[in-house]
């Protein structure tokens, strides 16, 4: 009921206050995609030979028909993606007199409108080292009788991190459905107190604290040791994924990751990044979720200040920037804490420890970000998207679209191309697909194929070097006996997975 009320209020407000041309997006924007010197991009002209990363001059003429730009540092992997990812150039956003062309309406629809998903979820509650609880919801087809997946399955695992408010959106449900149809094992990560996860300790997860996610990833690797692990984050949930990848580096256990409509500069976004109708709706939703724990939270924070807050910043400050905040943690073995100290937890100190890009130089896997120019939640792309990161760091790739709203990216494929794997969403619903889901799955496939080819080339070169020495005979190398304690090898052979981490940056 609350979701319907919020959606109705937003629709009425937009219809009354916004100009018609901006509301329906009927005006063409020839300069929608950004221009800048030294920016590598790919024009979505549909040309098969478009798989080439080229330096773009700031004064060059850009075609107005371009819908997608791939912005990245030129590298071997970038060229491979441009050559093998056809979805990157095959995006047809909705324009004209239709509500789907409105960025705000499409965002509200994806966040609030119910979706009859043909998948069901099996929950694993994970007890953490501090006795807290997080949950993993494993998606399985509704027709499948066996509700548990085998631990010996070699199917890849897709870890999905929803937005930081814990809302299961249509985007998450559709992604689970699409991933299942492509052979993945989707698992949705739920933070403490989110989506019915019990709050067993007086601690909530801070915005960019990856400690809980790290333990969940270890459990996934223990349960599915034979399958590769990929990760997808949605909206503000990308802050948690980027924080995890930065802190863990090459020990993240992941092969590749994708951020859908991420919020990069989160402190600025909490301070002034949202228009008041959307901010009011998110604040109201978070208050309703926290009201369940009002009594127990009152033991550590000022609940009056919490529930009287009218902004996202006020809520975050009331939860984590007060003496005795619920996000604090005891000091570790070294006497330090990964969260704010009780005596000096100011707003700026909080974001020094939770800003998603604080350790971005340590990320060691390919990360694709899918963003839209007209995203009403993130804000203006020129001021909210760190283009310099994608132009200088070979691990980061940006797909920037002219239209797509926030986690929307709906398009209408050609006839016969939209048949779903489950066939449960018939009628007009089945004709609408999410372009970003096809793009991210193709990105995962292409990066995996690229790393496999790199590994084969390394093995072939090593074999040739071995055959060239010793006069053609078999070479025996002396192995010294070590007196050190032997460490058990990882069941998933983590070193074999990550020995390519720098090979594609050339």
What fraction of the residues are assigned to beta strands by DSSP? Answer: 5-15%
Number-wise, the strands total 13
Q: Describe the largest sheet.
A: 9 strands, mixed
Give helix % range: 25-40%
Low-confidence parts lasting 5 or more residues at pLDDT below 50? 14-32, 35-65, 329-339, 414-431, 470-506
Helix and strand sequence: HHEEEHHEEEHEHEHEHHHHHHEHHEEEHH
Kindly provide the radius of gyration, computed on alpha-carbon positions and rounded to a whole number of angstroms: 24 Å
Structural notes for this entry:
- β8, α7 and β9 form a beta-alpha-beta unit.
- With 506 residues, the protein is of the alpha/beta class.
- It has a 9-stranded mixed β-sheet with strand order 3-11-10-9-8-6-7-5-4, with helices on both faces. Strands 1-2 form a two-stranded antiparallel sheet. The chain has a two-stranded antiparallel sheet with strand order 12-13.
- The protein is 34% helix and 13% strand.
- It starts with a helix and ends in an 8-residue tail after the last helix.
- The C terminus is likely disordered.
- The chain has 17 helices and 13 strands.
Give a brief rundown of this model.
The protein is of the alpha/beta class. Helices cover 34% and strands 13% of the residues. Helix 1 runs antiparallel to helix 9 and helix 3 (76-84) crosses helix 16 (435-468).
Features:
506 residues; alpha/beta; 9-stranded mixed beta sheet; two-stranded antiparallel ribbon
Q: How is the topology of this model organized?
A:
Layout (H helix, E strand, L loop, with lengths): L1 H16 L2 H5 L14 E3 L12 E3 L11 E4 L4 H9 L18 H10 L6 E9 L5 E9 L15 E5 L8 H12 L3 E6 L20 H13 L5 E6 L3 H11 L7 E5 L5 H7 L3 H15 L3 H4 L5 H5 L4 H9 L26 H6 L14 E6 L8 H4 L2 H6 L3 E6 L8 E2 L21 E2 H34 L25 H5 L8
Parallel strand pairs: 6-7, 6-8, 8-9, 9-10, 10-11
Antiparallel strand pairs: 1-2, 3-11, 4-5, 5-7, 12-13
